Amino acid sequence: MNDKTSPSLSRALALSNDMLSAADRGDLQTLAALDLERMELLQLFRNGTKQVAAADQALLTQIAEVNARTIGLLEHQRRSKGRDLDMASVGRRAVAAYSGTRSQR
To answer: What is the dihedral of CA 61, 66, 71, 77, to 10 degrees?
Structure first.
C-alpha cells in the first residue's frame, strides 16, 4: 500500500487474507484469533478517523471483499459437513433397517 493509507487498515487487510487462508484449511481457531485482532484494528481506525480518505476507502472495500469470500467459503464448508452428516444418518438408518434381515436367513 502507499504512504497515504492507514497502517491499521493495511494490517487488517493482511489479516483478512490470512483469515481466508485459515478458512480454506478449516482452521477455525486461527480464524477466530485473526478475526479478533482484525476487529481491534478496524475499531482503532474507526475511533481515530473523522473522514475516510479515498485510499483508506479502497482498503476497506478490499477488506469487505475478502471477508465476503471467507464467509462464503465457511458457508460452503458448513453445508458440505451438513450433507455428510445427512448421508451418515441415512447410512445408519439403512444398516438398522437391514440388520434384522441378516439374522432371519
So the answer is: 160
Q: Give per-residue pLDDT as tens, 19-69.
A: 999 999 999 999 999 999 999 999 999 999 889 999 999 999 999 999 999
Cα separation of 15 and 31, whole Å? 9
Task: Of 8, 10, 9, 24, give the one whose Cα is nearest residue 69.
Answer: 24
CA dihedral of residues 29, 30, 35, 40 (deg, nearest 10): 110
SS3 6: coil
Q: What does the block give as the cell for 85? A: 452428516
Would you mind telling me the total number of residues written for the chain in this entry?
105
State the pLDDT at residue 73: 95
CA distance 7 to 76: 32
Report the candidate in 23, 40, 39 with the shortest Cα–Cα distance to residue 31.
Answer: 23
Rounded CA separation 39/63 (Å): 11
